[in-house]
Design brief:
By secondary structure, the protein is of the alpha/beta class. The protein has four helices and four strands, in the order E-H-E-H-E-H-E-H.
């Protein structure tokens, strides 16, 4: 699971809570220039990986997802994010927490084949 920023800590908390040692979390500290060689080295170190996920708490049409699509094609990435919205603000704290949980849930789900 690739991500940036503080969202890493939310994912780490969930991974620890669920005891999911089968999930590797990779926090990307620098998007530009994208450290492609370092990312490919990380990917190579997980030779048994069956899927790669880009996780972001922003909506699909915001955040770094578009940048990653254009600049990183070493492996196919599955997106775990909020749906497309016109604003990153949910309008209420309850809705924001629910959307945040949905994203984290989608990171740790097994994709349908």
């Amino acid at each position: 699971v690739f991500c940036t920023g503080k969202f890493y800590y939310d994912l780490l908390e969930r991974r620890t809570q669920d005891k999911r040692e089968d999930v590797a979390l990779v926090r990307i500290e620098q998007l530009f220039p994208l450290p492609i060689e370092q990312l490919e080295a990380v990917i190579a170190s997980y030779a048994n990986a069956t899927q790669y996920v880009w996780a972001q708490e922003e909506p699909k049409n915001m955040g770094a997802w578009g940048f990653m699509l254009m600049n990183f094609n070493s492996v196919p990435l599955r997106l775990a994010s909020r749906r497309v919205y016109s604003s990153p603000a949910a309008g209420s704290s309850a809705r924001s927490k629910a959307r945040h949980k949905e994203v984290i849930d989608s990171v740790f789900q097994t994709p349908k084949k």
